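Severity: low
Component: inverse-folding endpoint
Summary: output formatting inconsistent between runs
Steps to reproduce: submit the following C-alpha cells with default settings.
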C-alpha cells in the first residue's frame, strides 16, 4: 500500500498537509519540528507540548526522540541550555 503526503510550507504562514493511503484521502495531523524558524523558548515549548499532547502513543514516542535536540535548535532564542524536553513529562 502506498502512503502519499503533499506538504505546502508557507514561510510566513501555516504548513498544510494532505495524506492519501492507497490513493484515498485520510485525516492528517501535522507535527512540524522546525526549530530554526525563529522561535523564542516560551513559544517553542508551547508548540512542543501541543504536538506531544495531540500525538498517538507511537507518534509521541518518535516525537520525543526528535524533539530532544532538534536540528536548528541553536536558533531558538532564550533557551539558555535548558533541556529540550520537559523533565516533568
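Observed output (run 2 of 3):
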Amino acid at each position: 500500500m502506498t502512503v502519499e503526503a503533499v506538504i505546502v510550507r508557507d514561510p510566513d504562514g501555516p504548513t498544510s498537509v494532505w495524506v492519501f493511503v492507497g490513493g484515498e484521502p485520510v485525516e492528517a495531523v501535522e507535527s512540524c519540528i522546525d526549530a530554526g524558524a525563529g522561535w523564542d523558548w516560551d513559544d517553542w515549548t508551547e508548540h512542543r507540548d501541543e504536538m506531544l499532547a495531540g500525538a498517538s502513543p507511537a507518534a509521541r514516542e518518535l516525537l520525543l526522540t526528535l524533539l530532544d535536540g532538534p536540528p536548528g535548535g541553536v536558533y531558538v532564542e532564550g533557551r539558555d541550555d535548558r533541556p529540550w524536553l520537559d523533565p516533568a513529562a
